[in-house]
Specification:
Layout lengths: L1 E2 L7 E2 L3 E4 L3 E4 L7 E2 L3 E2 L5 E4 L2 E4 L4 E2 L2 E5 L13 E5 L14 H4 L9 E2 L2 H11 L3 E4 L8 H13 L3 E6 L5 H8 L4 E5 L5 H8 L4 H13 L3 E8 L7 H15 L5 E5 L14 H13 L5 E4 L4 H4 L1 E2 L6 E6 L2 E5 L30 E3 L5
Parallel strand pairs: 11-13, 13-14, 14-15, 15-16, 16-17, 17-18
Antiparallel strand pairs: 1-6, 2-8, 3-4, 4-5, 7-8, 9-12, 10-11, 10-22, 19-20, 20-21
Helix pairs in contact: 2-3, 7-8
Length: 364
């Protein structure tokens, strides 16, 4: 937590309560930050202003970009569609291997280039032909009020919403948040509390609780990503335990993505993840009973492709973010054998492809 010398400004925030007559406590995430007047929480964007909790980044973004939905990564949520992506600044975890550290660790509010109302974001998605808006780049948990208001504006125009998050959130807040999300990719960074504590300054169990809640108790489509870091979370034993938990507690249909680490932030001395590690992890997860397991950040066409669990044939053949062949009907059933593929599907015409299109919203 940090003391702010400047006069703080922002929008009133939810999920807090006063304590001991002098401080307030943030109830958004398991950090439970206790703040004196003028003090910021560990995420740096939620603060005590005059005995009230405010969100200092409401309406302010680090930039907007149109991406393929597969980049989130979401392989079973309207494949081939485009998504308008944006984030703010800050994070409520402190991962030493953060791949977006320049945004998520930023305390420089000048990095927030675009001022954008929820309504402007929704209109921009509609104008650019994006089926959905993604809250990403940094963790939307810490700007949940902004994300939720934007989700309401998007839904009013028929635009879907996506959260890309580490999932570090208390359940009461999560119930409000995920009720407004159509899909989420939640990080399961490792399967030991030691990893979470030492490398993320967090804990594992709250993540497992949120994963189970989203999968079983909401209408939000869920996919999971694990970034494999050599020597840290890539042992056969840990991968078996992680995969077995997913299969038992969530079931065989939850898509699991194993993604390659590259040296960054405070872990520059560790080498990039070899493709063989991802392929080994994918086999372990499939042997545990998971039907949809993917590899990411490496060129692996087999690991990019969705296979029918009924007949075993490729139903969405991918090469990176390009869809080469699509063999599902509008209801998401395999055209070869009729087996239903888990996910959210619709009419498929032409894939957006691997393009990345930066946009500015000041004219929206």
């Amino acid at each position: 937590m940090a003391r702010a010398d400047e006069i703080l400004s922002g929008r009133p925030a939810k999920w807090w309560h006063p304590i001991d007559g002098e401080r307030i406590q943030c109830d958004l995430c398991p950090r439970d930050c206790k703040l004196h007047d003028g003090q910021r929480a560990a995420c740096f964007v939620r603060a005590n202003q005059g005995g009230q909790m405010i969100l200092t980044t409401y309406g302010r973004s680090s930039g907007f970009c149109i991406d393929p939905i597969e980049k989130k990564p979401l392989n079973h949520f309207h494949p081939g569609s485009s998504v308008l992506s944006f984030g703010t600044a800050g994070c409520n975890l402190a991962c030493k291997f953060c791949q977006n550290w320049d945004i998520s660790k930023s305390r420089e509010m000048d990095t927030l280039m675009d001022d954008a109302t929820p309504e402007a974001i929704a209109r921009a998605a509609q104008r650019y032909g994006s089926q959905s808006v993604a809250f990403t780049y940094n963790d939307p948990v810490i700007f949940a009020e902004y994300a939720m208001d934007t989700a309401d504006a998007c839904h009013a125009l028929g635009i879907k919403t996506v959260a890309v998050t580490a999932g570090y959130m208390h359940l009461p807040a999560a119930k409000e948040f995920y009720a407004r999300m159509d899909a989420a990719n939640i990080d399961l960074k490792a399967f030991t509390d030691e990893f979470y504590f030492k490398l993320c300054v967090g804990h594992l169990q709250p993540i497992l609780d949120i994963l189970a809640y989203v999968w079983h108790e909401t209408q939000c489509w869920l996919e999971i990503t694990t970034l494999l870091i050599p020597g840290q979370n890539d042992s056969d034993q840990e991968l078996r335990e992680l995969s077995a938990w997913c299969a038992k507690e969530l079931g065989p249909d939850v898509p699991l993505h194993f993604s390659a680490f590259h040296p960054d932030y405070k872990m520059n001395a560790i080498p990039s993840t070899p493709p063989a590690t991802l392929q080994r992890a994918r086999k372990i997860a499939m042997d545990a009973g998971l039907r949809y397991v993917y590899t990411g950040n490496v060129h692996d066409r087999a690991g990019d492709t969705t296979y029918c669990p009924g007949c075993g044939k490729a139903v969405i053949e991918r090469d990176w973010y390009e869809i080469l062949n699509y063999a599902l009907d509008d209801a998401g059933r395999c055209k070869h054998c009729g087996t239903a593929i888990a996910g959210r599907f619709g009419k498929f015409d032409k894939a957006f492809g691997a393009r990345r299109i930066p946009v500015r919203l000041h004219a929206a």
